Amino acid sequence: MSQIVASKPVEWRASDDLVPYQAAVAAMEERVRAIRAGERPEQVWLLQHPALYTAGSSARPEDLLDPGGLPVHQTGRGGQYTYHGPGQRIAYVMLDLKRRGVDVRRYVGLLEEWLILTLARFNVRGERRPGRVGIWIDRGGGREDKIAAVGVRVRRWVTYHGVSLNVDPDLGHYAGIVPCGISEHGVTSLVDLGLPVDMATVDVELRQAWDEVFEAG
């Protein structure tokens, strides 16, 4: 079951059930085609996947340590191995960069800023790190944990894939991979940081932070 909330210029969709990965990719590719053809509006799709691993275009075979029976999907997005599963909010973002500026680096920076502003609404300081994709939390004592990932693909200047934010996933599944090719740091979530928030609350904050970053002015 999905709920679609129309708003200009972006349509927001939130799926209640776990969405199979391949079905999600097929739906994104069709939406990208429709956006490019001017048939459908841009879209942000909020969802969760069943537990699985994905391998981005830069994934190294040695970084798949022990999948433990979880499926591994090859994907066209950038990046390396990552985990998706229940308790993680995924936002697939399908935007027409011809309308918003044909600058992929800037677009990735806006996605990062969106995540940072969302985390700030929970009094969590998310930070960028040079040479490391995603958003990081300084845990003190030299420890840094990743709380959100970014992986995008652009087809004829229409974006898809997007971001994932750890709300309350099973962090143990990250042991099966070297997340995003980085072995010297860990992974965390909002609940792991002592913030027992639910997905609906996260969605509200994502929506409000989106307006600040992508729709301001």
Q: What features would you highlight for this structure?
A:
217 residues; alpha+beta; nine-stranded mixed sheet; three-stranded mixed sheet
Commentary on this structure:
The chain is α+β, with helices and mostly antiparallel strands. It contains four helices and twelve strands, in the order E-E-H-E-E-E-E-E-H-H-E-E-E-E-E-H. It has helices at 21-36, 97-100, 104-120, 199-214, and strands spanning 2-6, 10-15, 42-47, 52-55, 72-74, 81-84, 88-94, 127-129, 132-140, 143-155, 158-166, 186-187. The strands form two sheets. Strands 1, 2, 3, 7, 8, 9, 10, 11 and 12 form a nine-stranded mixed beta sheet that branches. Strands 5-4-6 form a three-stranded mixed beta sheet, with no helix packed on it. Helix 3 crosses helix 4. It is globular and about 50 Å long. Mean pLDDT is 91; it is low at 1-7.
- What separation lies between the terminal Cα atoms? 34 Å
Total number of helical segments? 4
User: How confident is the prediction overall: mean pLDDT?
Assistant: 91
Taking all Cα atoms into account, the compactness measure Rg is 16 Å
Q: Which structural class is indicated by helix and strand composition?
A: alpha+beta
* Low-pLDDT regions: 1-7
Tell me the overall shape.
Answer: globular
Largest sheet: 9 strands, mixed
Percent helix, as a range, is 10-25%
Tell me what portion of residues adopts beta-strand conformation.
Answer: 25-35%
Number of strands: 12
* Series of H and E elements: EEHEEEEEHHEEEEEH
